[in-house]
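Weekly modeling sync, notes
Attendees: S.R. (lead), two postdocs, one rotation student

Agenda item 3: backlog of single-chain predictions. S.R. asked that every request posted to the team notebook include the full sequence so nobody has to chase files. The rotation student volunteered to paste the first one in as an example of the format we agreed on. Action items at the bottom.

Example entry:
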Amino acid sequence: MTISASVLAPPAVPTGAPARDGGAAAPTAPACAALTVVLFGVTGDLARRKLLPALTRLADGYAPVTPVRLLGVGRSEIPVDAFRAAAGLDGTGALEVDYVGGGYGDAATYERIRRRLVAARPGGGEVVVFYVATPPEAFEAIVENLGRLCDHVRGAGRQCRVLIEKPFGEDLTSARELLAHVTRSIRSDELLLVDHYLAKPEVRQLERLRIVSDRLAGRLDRSSVAHVQITIAETLGVDGRGGFYDRVGALRDVIQNHGLQLCAAVLSARRDVSGRATSWPDRRLRALEQLSVDTRPDGTHAAVRGQYGPVPGSFVRAYADESGVADGTRTETFAALRLRSSDPRWAGVPVYLRTGKRLAQAVCDIRIQLRGAADGATRPGRAEGDVIHVSIKGDPFVRMVTGGRTLDLASADPALAQDYVHIFHSATVGERGTFPDHGEMLRSWEIVEPVIREWEGGGPVAVYPAGSWGPEEAGLVMAGSHVWSRPRA
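Predicted structure, as returned to the notebook:
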């Protein structure tokens, strides 16, 4: 049985009213005369794999604005035709392409950007999105110069947005310092932090799923849910980025951002304790404020880390042997945690979160296990296998198995199915719910900080075979008779 898209569809956004609830904006969302994306790090891996294809699709297939223009910014001073050829932008699509080369700390670079903006749209009336997709060490120089450039953009009748990709800091202290530095130059209402998992349609559907669950399986809270499992797995290793990854690790790279945002999306309530409806970012922040890493009887945290080992007879090397990785490294390529919420609605419901590289399948999988008879279910006829299953990678779906029925919940907005298309769309129309706010980012660091410090003090790093589901020790974070499920790609 398939529930139609209309059941889960978000409400339409009235013309002239940017969405704040994080749902996909309707095609009638407010439009402006044009969009220009000034992309720092345009020659980098993220731009090549994600950002440039999304901009091409936005320009060619779905655009609340027209036209769409890319002004790429990179350190290499090359002709624009050479950049187009290197980026695979041959000029046959609707996307307008330009390029500026120069140092990120050089004021002359930003003067060239300003002149290109004026020359292309002398009358203003556009949204200018400055997208910072560079290594973290370049952030400070860029934002210092962007502050002055944004002043010009606003003064010339344009709207300004500044989008910054993760990682935002390397711990709570550095994140606070970086935020203070950035907001000295960039207005808070123009600064958007990017976590592309929040832009995935299956995550946005979790908001709509609550309505269906209330009708068919009971409220999504302790009365109906036994536990929650979230798996974010990659089959690749560090892919030539050993020097960078060795300073970061799985806890910082995935758990602190993607993982905890998915937890917040699952645990957030549609209304606050007074029954008042609140925005999606406010609900996510409230869920994060009540979330923490659980502890074991000995006082240590319910967290396990590991590193992938080699595959004998193949090209797959152990993480410790990867290029750029320090001798004797203890950086984790796998992390698993048990979290708990102090929200009375979720009391006693463990949330299990794991991520890793060189695992058996590339999946992002959320399983909300509903209570069966053995769990003391309050609804008659509930089977122990009843589950709400959200698959985000591969062949995405949102599926509910309850009472012997399998319900596939259809996606509501296929035009915005690609996450980075939705990010550009949301930034353009002012839909802030797609982006984690500053409080969410800082609270996520607060949650993982105790584990970071505990691991810095020592403790085991389990080695797991590449191509497996991680170290056997990951089972130690499970409570009672719970076991890790095997996600299906």
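Discussion: group reviewed the output briefly. The CA atoms of residues 71 and 116 lie 8 Å apart.
Action items: rotation student to repeat for the remaining queue; S.R. to check formatting next week.
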